TrEMBL record:
Domain annotation 7,8-dihydro-6-hydroxymethylpterin-pyrophosphokinase: ranges: 5-129
Keyword Metal-binding listed: no
Key words of the record: ATP-binding, Folate biosynthesis, Kinase, Nucleotide-binding, Transferase
Matching PANTHER family: 2-AMINO-4-HYDROXY-6-HYDROXYMETHYLDIHYDROPTERIDINE PYROPHOSPHOKINASE
Gene giving rise to this polypeptide: folK_2
Name of the molecule in the record: 2-amino-4-hydroxy-6-hydroxymethyldihydropteridine diphosphokinase
A GO term for molecular function: ATP binding
InterPro entries in the record: Hppk (IPR000550), Hppk_sf (IPR035907)
Pathway: Cofactor biosynthesis; tetrahydrofolate biosynthesis; 2-amino-4-hydroxy-6-hydroxymethyl-7,8-dihydropteridine diphosphate from 7,8-dihydroneopterin triphosphate: step 4/4
């Protein structure tokens, strides 16, 4: 079984879509470990704020199949095929890590956003502070500590999952 780390984000009815996305991920991959929820300003375009978080799960699926599952979940929850890269999203799911594999295809792993975007790095550092980035060789806690926190605005938000909802 491989341990995968997933970035989740939404800025269109974000609480609704993140909750639905997590339920779909749970149905595909079983129990999830979750970071806190964070709110951030849109990066790369002018738009409403995003809610972001990171989840982890275990899978016996290969990388290409995991990514295909993510795309299907996104589409099931209103993501338009072929939408511009920097635009509002109902649900955005990105594979950040697949164990400690480094590859270029079928996707780039580890994902560049880990070290470039606060909305990925902070929740990942919270979820697995001691885990080391496979290229940088530093823990996610260290990478977050070194990150220029003035470069992107990000703050934790209280979010209570509906009663009975477990991940």
């Amino acid at each position: 079984m491989a341990r995968i780390y997933i970035s989740l984000g939404s800025n269109i009815e974000p609480k609704k879509h993140l909750q639905a996305g997590l339920q779909s991920l749970r149905a595909c991959f079983g129990p999830l470990n979750l970071s806190s929820m964070y709110e951030s300003e849109a990066v790369g375009f002018s738009g409403t704020n995003f809610l972001n978080m990171v989840a982890s799960a275990e899978t016996d699926l290969n990388i290409a199949t995991v990514v295909a599952q993510f795309k299907q979940i996104e589409q099931n929850h209103g993501r338009l095929i072929g939408a511009k890269k920097f635009s509002p999203r109902t649900l955005d799911l990105d594979l950040l890590l697949y164990d400690d594999i480094v590859c270029q295809t079928p996707v780039v792993l580890p994902r560049d956003e880990i070290v470039n975007n606060a909305f990925v790095l902070w929740p990942l550092a919270e979820l697995v502070p001691a885990l080391k980035h496979p290229l940088a060789g530093k823990s996610y806690a260290s990478l977050w500590q070194e990150y220029d926190k003035n470069s992107q605005r990000l703050w934790p938000v209280a979010f209570e999952w509906p009663q009975g909802l477990t991940f």
